[in-house]
Automatic annotation (TrEMBL):
<feature type="transmembrane region" description="Helical">
    <location>
        <begin position="7"/>
        <end position="28"/>
    </location>
</feature>
<keyword id="KW-0472">Membrane</keyword>
<protein>
    <recommendedName>
        <fullName>TRAP transporter small permease protein</fullName>
    </recommendedName>
</protein>
<dbReference type="Pfam" id="PF04290">
    <property type="entry name" value="DctQ"/>
</dbReference>
<comment type="similarity">
    <text>Belongs to the TRAP transporter small permease family.</text>
</comment>
<comment type="function">
    <text>Part of the tripartite ATP-independent periplasmic (TRAP) transport system.</text>
</comment>
<keyword id="KW-1133">Transmembrane helix</keyword>
<comment type="subunit">
    <text>The complex comprises the extracytoplasmic solute receptor protein and the two transmembrane proteins.</text>
</comment>
<dbReference type="GO" id="GO:0015740">
    <property type="term" value="P:C4-dicarboxylate transport"/>
</dbReference>
<feature type="transmembrane region" description="Helical">
    <location>
        <begin position="48"/>
        <end position="65"/>
    </location>
</feature>
<feature type="transmembrane region" description="Helical">
    <location>
        <begin position="134"/>
        <end position="152"/>
    </location>
</feature>
<keyword id="KW-1003">Cell membrane</keyword>
<keyword id="KW-0997">Cell inner membrane</keyword>
<feature type="transmembrane region" description="Helical">
    <location>
        <begin position="86"/>
        <end position="107"/>
    </location>
</feature>
<feature type="domain" description="Tripartite ATP-independent periplasmic transporters DctQ component">
    <location>
        <begin position="22"/>
        <end position="156"/>
    </location>
</feature>
<dbReference type="InterPro" id="IPR055348">
    <property type="entry name" value="DctQ"/>
</dbReference>
<keyword id="KW-0812">Transmembrane</keyword>
Length: 174
C-alpha cells in the first residue's frame, strides 16, 4: 500500500512539475513571438498533447486515494452507515468495471498509436505525440487499484458492520 501511495504522490508531483514547465514554455513562446516575431515551434501541440494530458490524468490516483471524486448524497444522506457502505461497495464495483474496461481500451489505443508513431502537424513539421498516449491508461490503472482497495474496505464494513471513523480510515491509508 505504501508503494502505491508513493506512486500516487510521485505522479501528482510530476503533474505539478508539468504545470511549471508548461508555464515556462508558454511564457517563452509569448516572449519569442512578441519580441522576436518568431514563436516557438509546436508549443500548442506540446501543451495540448503532453502538458494538459499529464495535468488531467496523472493526479487521478491521488484523487482516488483521498476519495476526492464528486459524490452526490441527495438520497443517501439519511441511510444508516452500514447500508451506505454497502451502496458504496456496489458503486465501487460498477466504477471498477467501467475503469478496467476503460484502461483496457486505452492500452489498446496507446499500443496502436505507438505502433504508427502518431504525430500532429505543426507549423513547420510534425510533433510526435504517441508517448503521451501512455499517460492516460497509466493514470486510470492506478485509479482502478485505489477503487478496488476502497471497494473491498466498503464491502468488509458493510458485511461486518465495523465502520471506521474518517480519521481512522485516513490513518489506515497512510
Amino acid at each position: 500500500m505504501k508503494q502505491l501511495d508513493r506512486v500516487a504522490k510521485a505522479t501528482t508531483a510530476v503533474a505539478c512539475i508539468f504545470v511549471i514547465i508548461m508555464m515556462l514554455h508558454v511564457s517563452a513562446d509569448v516572449v519569442a513571438r512578441t519580441f522576436f516575431h518568431s514563436p516557438l515551434i509546436g508549443t500548442t501541440e506540446i501543451v495540448a498533447a503532453y502538458y494538459m494530458v499529464a495535468l488531467a490524468f496523472l493526479p487521478i490516483a491521488w484523487i482516488s486515494r483521498q476519495r476526492g471524486h464528486i459524490i452526490v448524497e441527495l438520497f443517501t444522506s439519511h441511510l444508516p452507515k452500514r447500508k451506505l457502505k454497502a451502496l458504496d461497495a456496489f458503486a465501487g464495483l460498477v466504477t471498477l468495471a467501467y475503469v478496467c474496461l476503460f484502461v483496457w481500451k486505452l492500452f489498446e489505443i496507446a499500443i496502436e498509436k505507438t505502433h504508427i508513431r502518431e504525430a500532429w502537424e505543426s507549423a513547420t513539421g510534425f510533433v510526435e505525440i504517441w508517448p503521451s498516449r501512455w499517460i492516460v491508461p497509466a493514470g486510470f490503472l492506478f485509479m482502478a487499484i485505489y477503487v478496488l482497495i476502497h471497494t473491498v474496505r466498503d464491502a468488509r464494513a458493510a458485511i461486518t458492520g465495523q465502520i471506521p471513523d474518517e480519521d481512522e480510515r485516513m490513518e489506515v491509508m497512510e
